[in-house]
Design goal:
The chain has 290 residues and is an alpha+beta fold. Helices cover 60% and strands 14% of the residues.
Length: 290
């Protein structure tokens, strides 16, 4: 089990390229990935997304790419075609307007675009190799942090699950006592109202059955036990379990609400309130589980 919150950083290098990748993930209802990278790397964004999708399946993911490559080799290129055009135009102007003199080398080199600075081209394969390596390293660091945080959350959630189990057992024991008291009180009331020979034993048994059915929570408690067992097993899983946990909490809330509607006394009602509190705490924690 892992948390949706984490951070990872990685570097990647190739012959002419060095990049740093930083990945941050936070809790989010949907799966949202955004990437910020230099324009010269944007053609690789689909590759980055593909790598990230293989590791992160839920939450908001922010990817930041920094280019730390050494300065590329620069050369100065003489634009010979443009120089020819300047010279042709210069001679034409001298002839037409009867001007004397020629363009000096100093003047010619100052003309726009005569000299061009050319940077060494980077191979796209080098860029991809370095970038993917940086992202993969960042994902490993991210996974380590998310597993650590997920383990801490899982441990705390297991403790809450144990307390829920204890409260459920309290409700079960209290329920037996309360129902027995209600049946006894009903019998005493009938006995006081009618003499023993006139009591309809069949009707009495029927009324006892009605009382038992009205307050019967055996099925709800059995399902709660089953959901609790599934919850505890799921919390030990190292994969993406957030949606499954969320479903289990919804089902447990359903059973607790039904149990509450059948509560036979104030003590049981208090236990039900405590169960709801614990389930709400679990639900909030699950929102940060992938």
């Amino acid at each position: 089990m892992r948390s949706m919150t984490g951070f990872g950083r990685g570097t990647g290098e190739s012959k002419t390229v060095q990049v740093v990748a930083e990945i941050k993930t936070v809790n989010h209802k949907f799966h949202d990935i955004s990437a910020k990278m230099p324009s010269s790397y944007q053609f690789l964004e689909p590759d980055v997304r593909e790598v990230v999708l293989g590791s992160v399946t839920r939450g908001k993911v922010e990817i930041f790419i920094k280019d730390l490559s050494p300065d590329r080799k620069r050369t100065i290129r003489l634009n010979e075609e443009l120089i020819d055009e300047y010279l042709k135009v210069s001679k034409k102007a001298a002839t037409k307007f009867k001007l004397k003199g020629e363009l000096s080398i100093e003047t010619l080199l100052k003309m726009p675009d005569v000299l061009q600075v050319v940077e060494e081209e980077r191979q796209e394969a080098d860029q991809k190799k370095a970038l993917v390596a940086a992202v993969e390293e960042a994902l490993k660091a991210l996974e380590k942090m998310r597993q650590s945080e997920g383990g801490r959350l899982g441990k705390d959630m297991l403790e809450k699950a144990k307390e829920i189990s204890q409260v459920v057992n309290q409700v079960r024991q209290r329920h037996k006592v309360v129902v027995a008291e209600k049946v006894r009180a009903f019998k005493e009331k009938i006995t006081d109202f009618l003499p023993e020979p006139l009591i309809d034993q069949v009707r009495l048994a029927t009324e006892e059955t009605v009382i038992l059915q009205r307050h019967d929570i055996a099925e709800e408690l059995t399902r709660l036990d089953s959901h609790l067992e599934a919850l505890q097993e799921t919390l030990k899983d190292k994969g993406a379990v957030g949606r499954k946990l969320d479903f289990l909490i919804q089902e447990m809330n359903r059973e607790v609400n039904t149990t509450g509607s059948k509560s036979a006394d104030a003590k049981m009602a208090q236990s039900v309130v405590r169960l709801k509190e614990l389930l709400e705490q679990l639900r909030e924690q699950i929102q940060n589980i992938e």
